UniProtKB/TrEMBL annotation:
The organism's place on the tree of life at top rank: Bacteria
Residue intervals of the Transglutaminase-like domain: 376-438
SUPFAM superfamilies named in the record: Cysteine proteinases
Residues in the signal sequence: 1-38
Protein name: Transglutaminase
Keyword entries, A-Z: Signal
High-level lineage: Bacteria, Pseudomonadati, Pseudomonadota, Gammaproteobacteria, Lysobacterales
Length: 526
């Protein structure tokens, strides 16, 4: 296993314009080689007190490296990184950004580590009589997801199982065409009907409370950290949200000394430390209880009006690079889907349905993707977080405030999983939930005839715990090194003084069970 030590160096640098000029020449050459154009309109520095040229130069280097990594030119990207890091005039912020691009390349190579022989061997386990023409067709259409990095064709580690989800032809060719596994809430069931009935009878949108006991853990591989060093772990932890999750009680942590982030932390965690011992795993865990509610907001489309011009809503309408950007392609997609509709709820329905139509597939790590909403728009598949960010971007573009939420989903059995969803603001109703990945239950009705089709556009089941009310925000206490997950926070984070511990160096676990004395409040789950 490989541990990265991030050398950030000093935080104060003197500008060296001549060396920056050399770096810019390298950047210009690299950009020309990958079909892009580097700006050379950088003013000359007038002395050590004038940092404008240095800042512009290092920004150009970072932009170039990002483009090179996105373009699968890793050797050229590494050359540009090395040149910039050797330059004392490179700012601390640019230095850190460049080091992350070096780490991003390493992470991409973990995700894309299969060669063609590996993929063919895995395919033949499911399709013993695999034909060359089939393989070529699935590769050409990128149904077998791959990248050509510095001339080497490398396949995504989930390329084969994703192929069977994305291609009915490939799925039908399996020797054992068993159904794909899915969570219990991904099909309409008695729980959805019970929520709808309870909301209608009570007149309340927050219903069927139950108390749940949760255990979460992180286990670091033996010798991932040298013996005697302190390992630092952040385990995701919910915060109270009235009507969604309440009365949160941390019961126990192992080790016993724990630091719980303030309630106001958008990505809340429990912070733990433990000293590593030679040849042994380093384990952290927490137990807690909370009350969870299901939600069902009954929305009359004819009552919905445009969102007010409120200062509190403004951040949820704005672009937020790098993952929420109103690109030309996204604007064109929006125009095609929305057409001449002006009602905010009906616009949301159209966008929800369009994003729901994007097939689900196992995703590469979010930290390796430059713009997730744009990726989801073009990749031909997306997972829950990618779909959610795409829908949030489209809603904001159309004047509908939207924000992020994510955490864990669980079941009455052994199933649990990471999951992302969101919220949108519909006047006069306020904030209502949306889960575009669970999506539409087209034509589904409850026993009493109530429609369940749009349940997840204004409703949530009670089988989820929210850890995050935003994406890409900081921890308390802050990490010293790069996060393994730069967008979401569901598995946790681990580091030591020597650097971050990436996902290939530790594992995580989650267990949730509804406490017996509260099961009667959720009879619809039986």
């Amino acid at each position: 296993m490989y541990t990265v030590r991030h050398q950030l160096g000093d935080t104060c640098f003197r500008q060296r314009p001549v060396r920056h000029a050399c770096a810019l020449l390298l950047v210009t050459a690299l950009l020309a080689g990958c079909g892009a154009r580097a700006s050379t309109d950088v003013p000359a520095a007038t002395g050590d007190g004038d940092s404008s040229a240095g800042a512009a130069a290092t920004d150009a280097v970072v932009d170039t490296v990002v483009a090179l990594v996105d373009g699968d030119r890793f050797e050229a990207a590494e050359a540009a990184i090395a040149a910039a890091l050797a330059d004392d005039g490179t700012s601390a912020a640019s230095r850190r950004a460049l080091l992350f691009q070096r780490e991003r390349m390493r992470r991409i190579l973990i995700d894309f580590r299969l060669d063609e022989d590996d993929v063919r061997a895995r395919l033949r386990q499911a399709i013993p009589d695999l034909r060359d023409d089939e393989f070529a067709r699935w590769k050409t259409t990128n149904l077998l997801e791959h990248r050509v990095i510095d001339g080497r064709t490398l396949y995504f580690v989930r390329a084969v199982p994703n192929l069977f989800r994305l291609s009915p032809e490939a799925a039908a060719r399996r020797a054992d065409p068993k159904p794909f596994s899915q969570g219990p809430m991904e099909s309409p069931n008695a729980h959805h009907a019970a929520i709808t009935e309870a909301a209608r009878e009570s007149g309340d949108s927050n219903v069927l409370p139950r108390r749940v006991h949760v255990t979460q853990s992180i286990t670091v591989d033996p010798d991932a950290v040298p013996a005697g060093e302190t390992v630092r772990a952040w385990i995701p932890f919910p915060r109270a949200i009235p009507g969604q999750q309440e009365d949160i009680r941390l019961l126990e942590s192992r080790p016993a000394q724990a630091r719980v982030a303030p309630e106001s932390t958008a990505q809340r965690t429990v912070y733990l430390e433990r000293v590593s011992r030679a040849g042994e795993p380093t384990r952290f865990s927490i137990d807690y209880e909370l009350i969870l509610y299901a939600q069902r907001h009954t929305i009359d489309p004819d009552r919905v009006v445009p969102a007010p011009a409120a200062e509190t809503l403004a951040p949820h309408l704005a672009e937020r690079p790098p993952h929420i950007v109103f690109t030309p392609a996204l604007r064109a997609f929006s125009r095609k889907v929305v057409g001449d509709e002006t009602n905010p709820y009906r616009i949301a329905q159209k966008l929800f349905a369009a994003v729901d139509d994007i097939p689900w597939a196992g995703a590469r790590e979010y930290s390796t993707i430059t713009n997730i909403s744009d990726y989801a728009l073009h990749a031909g598949h997306a997972d829950c977080g990618q779909q959610t960010l795409l829908l949030m971007t489209l809603l904001r573009l159309n004047g509908i405030p939207a924000r992020w939420q994510s955490g864990m989903v669980y079941s009455d059995g052994d199933y649990w999983n990471l999951h992302d969803w969101g919220w949108m603001y519909l006047a006069p109703y306020g904030w209502v939930p949306m889960d575009v990945t669970t999506g539409r239950f087209e034509g589904a009705t409850a026993a009493d005839g109530s429609s369940l089709e749009w349940f997840y556009l204004g409703g949530l089941d009670a089988y989820r715990i929210a850890f995050n009310d935003d994406y890409g925000t900081g921890f308390v206490p802050a990490k010293q090194h790069f996060r393994s997950e730069t967008v979401d926070s569901q598995r946790g984070e681990v580091e030591w003084d020597g650097g971050n511990l990436y996902f290939d160096q530790w594992d995580y676990d989650f267990e949730a069970r509804v406490l017996p004395d509260t099961a009667r409040t959720a009879r619809g789950n039986d």
